[in-house]
Structure formats: C-alpha cells, structure tokens
Amino acid sequence: MGVTTIEKRLAPPRRPGAIAWLRKNLFNSWLNSILTVVTVVVLIFILRAVLEWVFVNADWRPITRSPLLYLVGQYPRGELWRIAVSLWMVSFLFGLGWGVWRGLFRAFALALAAVLSAGVFLPPPVDAPALLFRLSWLINPLLVFLGFFLASWLHLKGRHVLIGWLISFIVTPILLRGVEGSSWLPSVETTLWGGLLVTLILAVGGLLLAFPIGILLALGRRSSLSVVHYSSVIVIEAVRGVPLITILFMTSIIVALFLPPELRIDRLVRAMAGMTIFAAAYIAENVRGGLQAIESGQIEAAKAIGLNNIQTIVLIELPQALRAVIPSLVGQFISLFKDTTLAVIVGITELLAIGRAVIQSDSEFIQLQAEVFVFIAVVFFVLSSVMSYSSRKLEERLGVGER
Amino acid sequence: MTDENMSSGNGVIIQCTDVHKWFDEFHALRGVDMEVKKGEVIVIFGPSGSGKSTFIRTINRLEEHQRGTIIVDGIELTHDVRNIATVRSEIGMVFQSFNLFPHLTVLQNVTLSPIWVKKMPKDEAEVLGRQLLNRVGIPEQADKFPVNLSGGQQQRTAIARALAMQPKIMLFDEPTSALDPEMIKEVLDVMVGLAKSGMTMLVVTHEMGFARAVADRMFFFDEGLVVESGSPADIFDRPQEDRTKLFLSQILTH
C-alpha cells in the first residue's frame, strides 16, 4: 500500500533528452570533447575508406562468378536437389520449433526463411533448369510457415520436434552421401563436398557428437571407480595438451595406418572425429566446473526423495550444471566452428580451402585475395555472431528461477 | 520377515542400537540407542556439534553408521543398495536450508519423486502435488520457481515434496533455523498439523514451544550421546542431568 502512495508522490526522473545525453556522455569535459571529436573524425575516415573499397575498388568477381562453389564445393550440380531437400527438412523443423517453443525460435526460423529465400538471386548452374533451381529456394520459407502452423494446429510437443531433428540427422548424411550402386541416389564421394556445406557439417556434426561425449567424460572424471576416473582424466588431459592440428593428423592419417586397408573410413568422418574428441575434452572441463558448483544439499535432497544415482545426475545435476556453463559451452561451439578451417590441412575442402582454390583457379584472381578472404571472414563473423546472440537469449530464457 | 512381524507387533518403527559414526578421527556418534513407535513425535535437541543432525541423517543413510544397527520398518540398513532405496522411499526429509531444486517449479519439485520413483502417471502426480501444496497452505505458488518464494514458503514446499512419497516417517533437520522469525510460525503450524495427523516424526529443533506442544518424547544430545530423554514434562520441569539443565537454561532464558 505504502509503495503506491510513494510512487504517486515521486514520479521517476524523466529520461534525459538527446542533447542532454550527448552533453553528459560525450562532451562533459574539455578533454572528453576533444576525444569525441578526434574519434569521430578517425571513424569517418575509416568508414569512407572501407566503403570506397567495398563499392568502388574491390573486384568481387571471385565470389560472384561461382557462388555455388563457396556453398557446396564440387558437389555434382545434377545432384543439388539432395542439398535442397536437406535444407527443406531444416526449414520445416525450424518452423516446427517456432510453433512449439516460440520465443527465440521465431527469430531463428524467420532469419532462416529470409536467408534461404535470398538464394533466389544465386545464378543457377549451367546445366540445371534455372526456374526449378530458383523455385527450390522459395520452398524454404513456405516450409517454415507450414511447420509453424502444423505445430500450432496439432499442438505438437517439444519431443516431437526433437524426434524430427533426430530423423533428419540420420537421413541427411545418407541423402547427401547416396547409396552405393543405386540409380536414383548414386553415391557422391565426400571428396566432392565442399564449402559452407562441409564447414557446417563439420561444426554441427562435431558439436552434436562432442556434447554427449563431453558430458560423459565429465561424469567419468568425477566417478569413484578409479578405472573410469583415470581413463577420463587421461583422455581429457591428453587432448587438451596438444594442438587441434595434431589431433586432426592423428585421426586422419595415423589412425588409418593402423586400421586394416579394407576398413576405409571416410576422410570427412575422420576429420569430424578429430574435431569431436578435441571439443569433447574442453566441453568436459566446462561441464565439470558446472557440476562442482552444485551444492551438496541438492544431491542429499535427491537421495532423500528416493532418486537413484542416474536419476540424480540426469534430473538434478546436469540441468543445473549445463545451465551454469551455457556461455562457456557456446564459446566452445563457436571456436569449434572456426576451427573447422584447420581441416584444410588434412585435405578437406571447407570454406577457406574453396577460397584458396578459387584464387588459384584464375590468374586474374591472384590479385584479388583480399576480396576472397574478407568475404569468408564476413561469413564466419555473421554465423558466429548469430551463435553468441542466441546463447545470450538462451541464457535469459533458461535463467528463469535461477537468480 | 521376523523383524517385520516383531516391529509391527509392538508398534516399533525405528530401532537404533549402539549407533557409532566417525568422521575421520572425530567420533561423532558414540553409541546412540533409540526406539521410536509408530505415530510418535520425537524432538531431538542439544548443542551444535552434539551429533543430533548426524544421527537423524543415519536413519535414511545420508550418513553411513559404522557400528551398531538401525532397523527401519523391519528393514536393517546395510550396504545393500536395495534396502537403502526401500527405506528412503518410506522416509521423508526436510533440511535446514530447504534444498529445493532451483531449476524446477514448486509443483515439479513436489511431483518429481512420485513420477520418477513411484512411476506415477504425470497427471495423477500433479493432482497429488496440488493436494499437498494445499495441505501446506501454498496452492497458489505451484507454478513459481523456488527463488520467487519466501523462506517459509520454500520450507513448506520442501515439506510437501517430502510428503509426496507418502512416507511413514518424516525427518526434520532444524527446519526453522534458516528462517526469518516471522516465518517460523507458518512452518511450525504445518508441522503441528502433520504431528496431529499421526505421522511418525523425528525433529531436530530448538523450538521448545513446538516440543512442549506436540512432542511425545524428547532426547537431549551432547558429545555424540543421548544424555537424557523423557516426556516434555520430564525434560522441562524435572531435568535430571546437569548438562540438560545448563543447556535448557541457556536456550530458554533468551
């Protein structure tokens, strides 16, 4: 009661106007005024130089001549429909996610719809029907909305969407890789895959595998069984003690030497295995930190209400531990995403490798390295920013009831 | 089997004989004997470090006793994991610091054990959960998170959570010690109601008003031993041991 009367008597101070804000924050003393002016002048010069380079001096032909190369590498142009279908699945699943979880997924789904629709402006490959190529992009936004309406209309639950994702993670590799000797789904060697396609496959695949392995390693490290404990410690410390490149070499080349020759593991799978184990070791340490932060009273309470050890871990400890370490986990995922560029070393033609190949493909382009690398940097920057933005939103959302 | 017949025969639900517990070199429990009958309300009090909390924590084996026997409802507590699980499912426990699960709503805290331990269907568990929240007087808080509740409401949630297993015995480990003074009463009221409903309760507390009102017997602990036990009238009006007298004078004169 008392609070309302006070509010009536004392209105909150009004927010200062633009001029007042400027004076307070930018020109509140002589020195600050000078700094402000100098900074603005420098910024204008830099901005002018950048804009001039981007729009006047830069020659974007290495990118515009064959943008598909950056997206999918040498993936046979006649088989591009498979990638289109994979993207349709992703669009539909994001739409479902939007319908079920709303909030953050809405932004993702709409952003995805917008980005994929922009594919309409890509030049179609020479030997493919142009109209079909362009239309295939426009199906994505339709599927996003279809997913949204289906999820809302059928009152789908989160687990339905998760099952959908699980199916797509199994179907997509088969679809892209094809089946040996099949006529309508001929196999496409992963040596032909490239560009953003491979970057995303390495990052998403590595991430999805590294996450559960990392959690198991963290739990193993905490285990009271000494065999489990020491194996986990050895794996974690060994992996953390060497650079990623070494691990990529190990999984790509050395492991293959020890395997019988008839057991050929795909190059991309080997690289992904390296990335996975590397990321898993770091995730394990993050998760361990989260587990250690849980009060012992939580575990006692779980025991007291009769939960067994596994239920205590899954229902009480992990949800709290993971929530506490979301920022560092996302940081880990972002660095995994950027680290995919190291796969060049073991002969994977991911985005950066495509860039270098393009530069070398044409004598004219050798002068245009800057354009290629700037373009690739922007792609990485945008995708990384999306990830860190979504981690902040996820934190806000999961933070409910935390503090 | 014989144990169970025995205990149901004379109504004994907890039987502790010569219970010892060491923390490294420290001898925390030095041979505690206690027999609790079905429906009894036991208040355990004593100075800090006297082993009273450690003792009630041995009853649902949050602490392992190293000598002596503890038999709960005919089941002896040993290293056998199945016995421990059975005993825990019959004992509810309320902690000093509530220990609610912060990532779950109040209702989810309460329904967790019915759903996962008793394998009760979710909607049935929620009906039970809402009944229990009603019983402890906070039905309107069901969908909030623990952090948004007052201390008294949190502790009442913890009581509801413990009751959700429909236990035969309730253990309270200083349930009001972490509460602001104005919230102690609301928690004690719930406990009094529970005692009147016939629940077997072991309560570690210094709330002597509560003890006088509902305790059947009181146990004074000091240095890991039961120094004195008896009805509230015996303890308050005719204490025999000097240590009991001294302790009572210390907590009652303030």
Descriptive key words:
A: 403 residues, 0% strand, B: alpha/beta, six-stranded mixed sheet, four-stranded antiparallel sheet
Oligomer: heterodimer
| Structural class computed from helices and strand pairing of chain B | alpha/beta
Instruction: Name the structural class of chain A.
Output: mainly alpha
Continuous helix count of chain A: 18
Most extensive chain interface and residues per partner: A-B, 22 and 30 residues
Distance between the termini of chain A: 26 Å
Give Rg of chain B in angstroms: 18 Å
Catalogue the unreliable spans of chain B.
Answer: 1-8
Helix/strand order of chain B: HEEEHEEHEHHHEHEHEEHH
Mean pLDDT across the residues of chain B is: 91
- Our count of helices of chain B gives 10
Number of strands of chain B: 10
Helix and strand pattern of chain A: HHHHHHHHHHHHHHHHHH
Uncertain regions spanning at least 5 consecutive residues of chain A: none
User: Helix fraction of chain A?
Assistant: over 70%
Beta fraction of chain B: 15-25%
Rg for CA atoms of chain A: 26 Å
Instruction: Please outline the major beta sheet of chain B.
Output: 6 strands, mixed
Task: Please estimate the helix content of chain B.
Answer: 40-55%
Overall form of chain B: globular
Kindly estimate the percentage of residues of chain A that lie in beta strands according to DSSP: under 5%
Describe this structure in words.
The longest helix of chain A has 30 residues, at 369-398. Chain A has helices at residues 2-9, 18-25, 30-57, 61-64, 67-72, 80-101, 103-117, 130-153, 158-177, 195-222, 226-240, 244-258, 267-292, 296-304, 309-324, 326-339, 351-361, 369-398. Chain A has 403 residues and is an all-alpha fold. Helix content of chain A is 74%, strand content 0%. Chain B starts with a helix and ends with a helix. In chain B, helix 6 (151-163) runs parallel beside helix 7. A six-stranded mixed β-sheet of chain B has the order 6-7-8-3-9-10, with helices on both faces. In chain B, strands 2-1-4-5 form a four-stranded antiparallel β-sheet.
